[in-house]
């Protein structure tokens, strides 16, 4: 009972802090999820552990941390399932998809290569925990991520979700998410097996798992989706089936050597994309996941975010990482948009928005820490990089239209599959 009461107190603190700091961020024009990220860090050794060390030690015990870890992984699997369920590539024509694909390739691979080169150039300072190749690939993936759900929220808040520039940016971000998770899944497979042969086998199992989802599970789910579109109701039996499938997908991917959130994400991709089904699914699941489970993940990340002795070297590494992470994503996106015929203002705005890394980045970083790919100090540096790049997205977006970068192009509204704000 003492452990249970302790857990309840911790959960109250986590949810309250997430809502309060999230509301403060909304008041200054930032998305709520940025406040939730910051709240998680503040509940860790960064602030709470400093001002109330005894309370922090008594509340966040080893047992509580274990429980939070379990809830965090459950929350991530469900959250990535919702993200995958909202990714829809069917509403775009070939030309539009090609344009968004070009932006996604540039905004993914340029930061990827930047991160790899940076990690190799300063390998002795980064304290790699294992294989140098795996470490450098992970840093590259961390540089390349863009937060698809957060971007959807920002675009909708700014009323540009239905414009050509908004749709292009959003579709590109969803492609980057898919590329990022596939790359991370392959990397984790190689790390888990510690051999190329084992990695290849894990990749083969993952491919089989994916093919089963798309060739077997998706057609079966389509029947359920069609029925929901007709009746307008997702029954409890349907909801139970969805939840069981999420848990099975998470368990299977974890068993074959790929992080469990990948299973949730891939299952989400094969979910029915009908409007009523999406509304019913979000109504029943989204609030619980976003309000309750995701802040637990932020808090667990915050507990692991601390400098074991801040030095000038660590600070300079942080500045270098921050500058390269922002510029590689910004300029790669901006120049591609300009080549596609957009004005400098619009190209700069897209480059700014693509820097919103948000929750996706934190998930990637926790995977790296869990698998021993990065040190504690580098984890902390990259967490703060994720927070600051996310916070910079909207100010840079606004600055793009206030600077003298050329005449702003006004795009007409277009029809495409809208992504619900989260």
UniProtKB/TrEMBL annotation:
Cation/H+ exchanger transmembrane domain location: 19-393
Gene3D superfamilies, A to Z: 1.20.1530.20
Localization per record: Membrane
Keywords: Ion transport, Membrane, Transmembrane, Transmembrane helix, Transport
Membrane-spanning segments: 6-26, 38-61, 67-89, 101-126, 132-155, 167-191, 203-221, 285-303, 309-331, 378-397
GO cellular component: membrane
InterPro entries in alphabetical order: Cation/H_exchanger_TM, CPA2_transporter, Na+/solute_symporter_sf
One Pfam match: Na_H_Exchanger
Protein name, as recorded: Cation/H+ exchanger transmembrane domain-containing protein
Recorded topology in the membrane: Multi-pass membrane protein
Molecular functions per Gene Ontology: antiporter activity
PANTHER family cross-referenced by the UniProt entry: CATION/H + ANTIPORTER, K(+)_H(+) ANTIPORTER 1
GO biological process: proton transmembrane transport
Keyword check for DNA damage: no
């Amino acid at each position: 009972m003492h452990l249970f009461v302790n857990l309840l107190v911790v959960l109250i603190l986590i949810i309250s802090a997430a809502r309060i700091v999230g509301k403060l961020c909304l008041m200054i024009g930032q998305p709520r999820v940025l406040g939730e990220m910051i709240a998680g860090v503040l509940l860790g050794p960064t602030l709470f552990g400093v001002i109330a060390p005894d309370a922090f030690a008594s509340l966040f015990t080893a047992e509580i941390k274990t429980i939070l870890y379990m809830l965090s992984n459950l929350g991530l699997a469900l959250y990535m399932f919702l993200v995958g369920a909202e990714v829809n590539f069917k509403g775009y024509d070939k030309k539009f998809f090609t344009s968004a694909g070009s932006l996604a390739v540039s905004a993914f691979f340029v930061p990827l290569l930047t991160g790899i080169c940076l990690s190799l150039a300063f390998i002795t300072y980064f304290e790699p925990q294992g294989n140098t190749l795996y470490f450098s690939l992970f840093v590259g993936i961390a540089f390349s991520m863009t937060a698809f759900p957060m971007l959807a929220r920002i675009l909708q808040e700014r009323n540009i979700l239905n414009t050509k520039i908004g749709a292009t940016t959003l579709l590109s971000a969803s492609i980057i998410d898919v590329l990022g998770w596939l790359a991370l899944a392959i990397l984790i497979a190689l790390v888990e097996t510690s051999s190329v042969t084992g990695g290849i086998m894990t990749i083969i199992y993952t491919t089989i798992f994916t093919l089963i989802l798309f060739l077997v599970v998706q057609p079966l789910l389509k029947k359920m989706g069609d029925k929901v579109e007709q009746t307008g109701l997702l029954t409890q039996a349907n909801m139970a089936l969805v939840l069981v499938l999420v848990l099975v997908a998470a368990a299977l991917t974890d068993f074959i050597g790929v992080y469990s959130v990948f299973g949730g994400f891939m299952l989400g991709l094969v979910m029915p994309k009908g409007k009523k089904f999406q509304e019913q699914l979000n109504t029943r699941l989204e609030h619980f996941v976003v309000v309750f489970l995701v802040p637990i993940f932020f808090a667990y990340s915050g507990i692991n975010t601390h400098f074991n002795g801040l030095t000038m070297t660590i600070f300079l590494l942080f500045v270098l990482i921050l500058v390269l992470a922002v510029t590689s994503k910004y300029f790669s996106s901006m120049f591609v948009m300009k080549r596609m015929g957009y004005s400098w203002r619009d190209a700069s705005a897209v480059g700014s928005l693509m820097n919103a890394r948000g929750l996706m980045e934190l998930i990637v970083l926790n995977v790296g820490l869990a698998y021993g790919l990065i040190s504690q100090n580098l984890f902390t540096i990259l967490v703060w990089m994720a927070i600051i790049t996310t916070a910079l997205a909207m100010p840079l977006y606004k600055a793009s239209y206030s600077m003298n970068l050329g005449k702003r192009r006004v795009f007409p509204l277009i029809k495409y599959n809208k992504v619900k704000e989260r």
